[in-house]
Amino acid sequence: MNMQPPSRFGSGSAQMPVAFDRREMSQILSVYGRMVAAGEWRDYGISNLRETAVFSIFRRTAEHPIYRVEKHPRLRMRQGMYSVVGMDGRILKRGHDLRSVLRVLERKLIRAVDSD
Questions:
Q1: Which of 25, 55, 56, 59 could make an S-S bridge to 65, C-beta 3.0–4.6 Å?
Q2: What InterPro entries has UniProt attached to this entry (predicted)?
């Protein structure tokens, strides 16, 4: 006997896209807001895909993102589901705790404030 509750999306492999929850968005937007106030960042975009949620950060509108904050729930038990990816595709920081992963961006804020 199948004890799983029925899917809201019918049968098959259809699933809801991955998204950042309210707490995660609050942490991301806190760092984002400080960088906007420092004049470093101007725009952002959010993508909720089937296996990944992405918060893209732009220096100017209509260019490639300079950073991406990504959430990969499938990596939760391995190296951590959160990562910050640079413009060149390199993973700058990865981990289980979003706040600690975002610290790599906060170091950029300290540098931006000190350089004036």
A1: 56
A2: DUF2794
The count of domains in the chain is 1
Instruction: Please tell me the distance from the alpha carbon of residue 86 to that of residue 105, in angstroms, as a whole number.
Output: 10
Q: How far apart are CA 67 and CA 47, in angstroms?
A: 13
**pLDDT digits over 20-32, tens only?**
999 999 999 999 9
Token readout for 41 is 């960042």
Which residues fall within 8 angstroms of residue 48, CB to CB, at 6 or more apart?
17, 18, 19
Residue 82 lies in a domain: yes
Place of tokens 């993102």: 65
Q: Rounded to an integer, what distance in angstroms lies between the CA atom of residue 62 and that of residue 100?
A: 29
Residue 92 has phi, psi (to 5 degrees) of -85, -30
